[in-house]
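Question (not urgent): is this output format expected?
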Amino acid sequence: MVVGSLPTNFGFCSLSLGADTEPGLVHTRVTTAANASDIASLAECLRTDDAPVHLDAGYVGAQKREEITERQADGRLKTDIDWQTAKRRKGIRQMPERLMKDMLMAAENAKAQVGAIVENPFHIVKNVLKYRGARYRGLAKNTAQRHLLFGLAKVMMAKKR
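Got this back:
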C-alpha cells in the first residue's frame, strides 16, 4: 500500500490517497482542510489488510501515532505492518561521502520508485481530466467532485492494464 498526498495545489483543501502497490489503483481518498497535516489523515487511508506501507518523509513516526496504535489494538489494522518511510533529505545530505551514504541513497531511491506509484492518479486527474483547482463551494462538494474524478482515473488506469 502506498500513501500519497496532494498539498494545497487543489485550493483550500488537501487530498490524501491510499493506493495498492502492485496495480497502483486508488482504494482510499480522504479530503481534509488545507491546514490539517497529512499524517493526521493517515489512519483513514489504511486498510485492514495493508502489510507493507510505503510513506514519504512527511510521515516519519507514523507508526507511533495514537490513532494508528488504537486501530492496531482494536484489530482494525495489522500489528506487524512493515513501515517503509523515506528518510528526510537533510540527514542524508549531511552524511560524509562514503559507501554507507551510497547504500542509503540506493535504498531511498527504491522507496521513491514505489512511492511514485501514487502520483499516476494525480497525473490523470490534473493533466488528462484537466482538474487544476478547487472551486470554493465547500469541503463536501469538493470531496464529492474529487471522488468522481479519481473514480474516473481508476477506470482509465484499469483499462490500460
